[in-house]
Amino acid sequence: MIEISGVSKSFGAHEVLRGVDLSIAKSEVVCLIGPSGSGKSTLLRCVNFLEPYDAGDVRIEGRLIGYEDAPDGARRPMNARKLRDMRREIGMVFQHFNLWPHMTAIGNVAEPLRRVRGLTANEAADRAMAILTRVGLAAKADAYPSHLSGGQQQRVAIARALAMQPRLMLFDEPTSALDPELVGEVLEVMKSLASEGMTMLIVTHEMGFAAHVAGRIAFIDEGRIIEEGPPRQVFHHSEEPRVRQFLQTYHDRNSF
Ligand code: ADP
Ligand code: MG
Predict the structure, then answer these.
(1) Separation between Cα atoms, residue 21 and residue 55, nearest integer Å
(2) Whole-number mean pLDDT of the chain?
(3) Residue 93: helix, strand or coil by DSSP?
(4) Residues in a beta bridge with 5
């Protein structure tokens, strides 16, 4: 479903991704973990081409995103409309929920359905309501974001992404901005998505969740994936000093 190979990316002289290889199969859940500044967000943003990568390939279902190979062998930026079409297949959820403050929960979910998918107001409202119900927020459909908790806002953001019927979902630290008691409700929604077979790439510091839901953990350090494997392997049997050190620090802080 996602095939990342040899992806590199620099900001000025700073090489943030240094030849990343990572593949994710359909219905697979991969959790990406690693220290702050290691390139997690940048990698995620390269997958939907919010961030152009400098070298390598990111393929979604076999199709290169962001570039087209020209007959002369060079690579050109992809036509904007084709890029938009590809992006529609990819849902993204951020740490900060980015809801429209002047719209209700249902408005936030329905609006892109009208604007992007061309549904009528009624169709969009019906679909939005069905999806809010799925994330447990039917009762809050008419509430504005400022009247919702962080956990509820994030569930609306997930609903908004799901409404577009994406084929895969990217999550960038979806619970990091939440008070601890609100983390669980968001993770529950993500678990249910996983069990329904959604393909997901998740940046998270919730190791318990990652151990439970991920088929695979990828550990990134200084722009390289230095270890990849089943949670048991990475969390309990890693021989990579940097992985062990990261987990130890995490352990000490969170006593999980
Ligand atoms: P992570 O998500 O793992 O914390 P990021 O991918 O956000 O790491 O960032 C990796 C590195 O790239 C950091 O050193 C960060 O400062 C740098 N970086 C990220 N985005 C930009 C940008 N737009 N311009 C310049 N440097 C950036
Ligand atoms: Mg980040």
Answers:
(1) 12
(2) 95
(3) strand
(4) 57
- List the residue whose alpha carbon is closest to atom 18 of ligand 1: 11
Q: Which runs of consecutive H residues, i.e. helices, occur in the chain? A: 40-47, 80-87, 105-115, 121-134, 150-163, 180-195, 207-213, 231-236, 241-254
Q: Is 42 close to ligand 1, i.e. is its CB under 6 Å away?
A: yes
Three-class DSSP category at 174: coil
| Atom number, ligand 1, closest to the C-alpha of residue 173 | 2
pLDDT value, residue 193: 96
Tell me the pLDDT band of 122, cut-offs 50, 70 and 90.
very high
CA atoms within 13 A on the CB side of 167: 13
Do residues 39 and 147 make contact, with C-beta atoms less than 8 angstroms apart? no
Query: Cα of 33 to ligand 2 centre, how many Å?
Result: 10
Check whether 255 has a pLDDT greater than 80. Answer: no
Q: Report the chain's C-alpha Rg in angstroms.
A: 19
User: Pick the residue with more confidence: 225 or 117?
Assistant: 225
Convert the pLDDT of each residue in 68-92 to its tens digit: 988 887 889 999 999 999 999 999 9
Q: Which residues of 80-106 are buried (b: 16+ CB within 10 A; e: fewer)?
A: eeebeebbbbbbbbbbebebeeeebbb
pLDDT at 171 over 70: yes
Task: Please report the pLDDT score of residue 18 as a whole number.
Answer: 98
- Residues measured by CB to lie within 5 Å of ligand 2, the ion: 40-41
As a whole number of angstroms, the longest Cα–Cα distance in the chain is 57
Predicted local confidence at residue 252, as pLDDT: 76
208 CB within 6 A, ligand 1: no
